[in-house]
Write a structure and sequence with these properties.
The complex is a heterodimer of chains A (about 140) and B (about 300). With about 140 residues, chain A is an all-alpha fold. Chain A is about 55% helix and about 0% strand. Chain A has one domain: Dioxygenase LigAB, LigA subunit (Protocatechuate 4,5-dioxygenase, Chain A, Orthogonal Bundle), CATH 1.10.700.10. The two termini of chain A are about 15 Å apart. Chain B has 10 helices and 11 strands. Classes of the chains: A mainly alpha (about 140), B alpha/beta (about 300).
């Protein structure tokens, strides 16, 4: 149970986890406006305005074209790379009226029925998915 | 004097709130989960505390990215259920206990835990789903609740060791409150789950059960688990389990398990639930007030 001994090692280890974007300070900075945009969808009137004209609503926020395109495409893996956090992005799931599990499945290589089936069979095993470097 | 009588840990998956609110708790999918809480509901009805210190995390509901408190304690009179994008859950408002909450806040700060104090906020599924799982659907929650919110979303969250120590400091604070009150501490969230990226859906029953084992008895080995181990073994959201360690720390040197339940899956998540009581509730004394001890001055 010994952990990293300094902040650089602590942060570097996060990149060794397969298929995972840890929501670090660097991502939190990068995705600040994206996450705050998503947060704005907590309000019913904002959800309505967004649904009516997504592009126009996005243009009200300090977002890069890349971020806007990823939101319009609901490309959640791209949004994670751009600093999005899943709890903030979930406001977009509810705006679209899709379940958390369905939205999550779009980030995997499975469709929703296959993902749900995997979960019902006990979920994804950590075997081989703990560390890229150590292949375990 | 106030005393800590028991601790409960439970997952707080939002889908369980939906199932309860829509009357689906008896469905084939949900009934094995809800059945695991039956013993605890009956036990809790017999052993109702006056106040629950409920450790949970906010999921971009009360807090956005503007302000990210590591540890925050609710000192308000009451808290409404948050609108998480689907409208607020149809559950009662949560009544606080401002006298005890402010006492704990003051005591923790003097004990060198630099708390954020919240007077007004809405509470999301992280707090209301555990209440539903343990109390069902009453018109009014049967006891008062002090919300204690922990940042486990933006890295770094507090260490497991710090969480355990905060629990011990909460025990000292409760112990010095002059009113005669029974207090439970609940730790919520977890168990293994990953809600993002290609590795989403990760579940690790072996690790989760090791963690449940480690909450019982006189061992404190769980406090030394580093963040990276939670991430590798339990998925990106399994880190919520550090909140269980606040509960465990508050129960003192040795615990006994009264009930334990584990079930996979609920949506994306492994459901774990344990009821603990202190066998030896002793926590290390704080010799510090305002850092006034030899260790702090060294």
């Amino acid at each position: 149970m010994s952990g990293p001994k300094d902040i650089h090692t602590y942060l570097a280890e996060f990149d060794d986890i397969p298929g995972t974007r840890v929501f670090t300070a660097a991502r939190a900075r990068k995705g600040y406006h994206l996450n705050q945009f998503a947060m704005s969808l907590m309000k019913a009137e904002n959800r309505d305005r967004f649904r009516a004209d997504e592009k126009a609503y996005l243009d009200e926020w300090k977002l890069s074209d890349e971020v806007k395109a990823a939101v319009l495409a609901r490309d959640y893996n791209a949004l994670l790379d751009l600093g999005g956090n899943v709890y903030f992005l979930s406001k977009l799931f509810s705006t679209d009226g899709i379940s958390f599990a369905e939205a999550v499945s779009t980030m995997t290589d499975m469709d929703f029925p296959a993902y749900r089936e995997m979960m019902n069979r006990g979920g994804r095993s950590p075997e081989g998915l703990r560390s890229i470097r150590e292949k375990r | 004097m106030a005393r800590i009588t028991a601790g409960i840990a439970t997952s707080h998956v939002p889908l369980l709130g939906v199932a309860a609110d829509q009357g689906k708790s008896g469905d084939e999918y949900f009934s094995p989960i809800f059945a695991g809480y039956e013993w605890s509901r009956e036990w809790l009805a017999e052993n109702l505390p006056d106040v629950i210190v409920l450790v949970y995390n906010d999921h971009a509901s009360a807090f956005d990215m503007k302000i990210i408190p590591t540890f925050a304690i609710g000192c308000g009179e009451s808290y409404a259920p948050a609108d998480e994008g689907w409208g607020p859950r149809p559950v009662p408002d949560v009544e606080g206990h401002p006298d005890l909450a402010w006492h704990i806040a003051q005591s923790l700060i003097l004990d060198e835990f630099d708390m954020t104090i919240i007077n007004e906020m809405d509470v999301d599924h992280g707090l209301t789903v555990p209440l539903t799982m343990l109390f069902g659907a009453p018109d009014k929650w049967p006891c008062k609740v002090i919300p204690l919110a922990v940042n486990v979303v933006t890295y770094p969250p507090p260490s497991g060791n710090r969480c355990w120590a905060l629990g011990e400091a909460i025990a000292r604070a409760v112990d010095s409150f002059p009113e005669d009150l029974d207090v439970q501490v609940w730790g919520t969230g977890g168990m293994s789950h990953q809600l993002q990226g290609p590795r989403a859906g990760l579940i690790n029953p072996e690790w989760d059960n090791m963690f449940l084992d480690g909450l019982v008895g006189d061992t404190d080995k769980l406090r030394h688990i580093p963040h990276i181990e939670y991430l590798r073994e339990t998925g990106s959201e399994g880190i919520e389990m550090v909140m269980w360690l606040i509960m465990r720390g508050a129960l003192g040197r040795e615990t006994r398990a009264l009930h334990r339940h584990y079930h996979v899956p609920c949506s994306n998540t492994a459901i774990g639930h344990i009821v603990l009581e202190p066998v030896d509730g002793t926590v290390p004394p704080s010799t510090t007030i305002e850092g006034n001890n030899s260790a702090a001055k060294a």
